[in-house]
């Protein structure tokens, strides 16, 4: 029998696991306690394979505490941090859908590319950018030119260069500062995870 000891336990951040045969504490949580106790606790099974049939599983800290107390009733367990963890189960069937995923990504990218191009052209038509270039060329050179390419060509390249600089994808990163796109993707993922946590039953509610 293990003497009374304190065990601090913290659930990890949302994680993805592939073809799990089961879910152990070491997969989903961080434990702080004596070394000999820690090794035993990390290998305790929280969920068996038959309990992991869904794509998303919400694991409650109460489930982890219950499993520890079943095998080590004399431990003093102190949960730290979040009370629930979102786990995504990725099986071989999902891995085989990579071609379909890339195809969808290509279609979306092409659609966004065409749509963005049309939006830029419509904006330039609305503000009469062609006439503005003619006036600017006349002010600089004193000559009239129906197609001031010396202004229009650099301007066109400048739009693409400006977008690349704005999204921080032109030069190699020298810091861990995220780009605006990375921030938006992070917020989207965070909202998605919060929705799943709010709407999926956790391991305690499913009993």
TrEMBL record:
<feature type="transmembrane region" description="Helical">
    <location>
        <begin position="149"/>
        <end position="171"/>
    </location>
</feature>
<dbReference type="InterPro" id="IPR021997">
    <property type="entry name" value="SporV_AA"/>
</dbReference>
<dbReference type="Pfam" id="PF12164">
    <property type="entry name" value="SporV_AA"/>
</dbReference>
<dbReference type="InterPro" id="IPR038548">
    <property type="entry name" value="SporV_AA_N_sf"/>
</dbReference>
<feature type="domain" description="Stage V sporulation protein AA">
    <location>
        <begin position="5"/>
        <end position="91"/>
    </location>
</feature>
<protein>
    <submittedName>
        <fullName>Stage V sporulation protein AA</fullName>
    </submittedName>
</protein>
<keyword id="KW-1133">Transmembrane helix</keyword>
<keyword id="KW-0812">Transmembrane</keyword>
<keyword id="KW-0472">Membrane</keyword>
<feature type="transmembrane region" description="Helical">
    <location>
        <begin position="105"/>
        <end position="125"/>
    </location>
</feature>
């Amino acid at each position: 029998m293990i003497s009374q000891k304190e065990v601090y336990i913290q659930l990890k951040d949302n994680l993805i696991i592939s073809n799990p045969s089961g879910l152990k504490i070491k997969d989903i949580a961080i434990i702080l306690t004596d070394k000999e106790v820690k090794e035993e606790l990390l290998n305790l099974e929280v969920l068996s394979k038959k309990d992991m049939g869904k794509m998303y599983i919400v694991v409650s800290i109460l489930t982890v505490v219950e499993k520890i107390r079943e095998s080590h009733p004399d431990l003093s367990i102190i949960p730290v941090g979040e009370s629930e963890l979102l786990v995504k189960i990725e099986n071989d069937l999902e891995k085989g859908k990579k071609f379909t995923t890339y195809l969808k990504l290509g279609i979306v990218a092409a659609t966004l590319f065409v749509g963005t191009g049309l939006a830029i052209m419509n904006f330039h038509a609305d503000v009469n950018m062609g006439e503005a270039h003619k006036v600017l060329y006349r002010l600089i050179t004193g000559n009239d030119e129906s197609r001031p390419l010396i202004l229009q060509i650099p301007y066109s390249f400048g739009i693409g260069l400006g977008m690349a600089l704005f999204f921080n994808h032109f030069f190699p990163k020298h810091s861990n500062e995220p780009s605006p796109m990375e921030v938006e993707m992070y917020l989207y993922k965070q909202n998605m995870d919060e929705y799943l946590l709010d709407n999926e039953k956790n391991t305690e509610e499913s009993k």
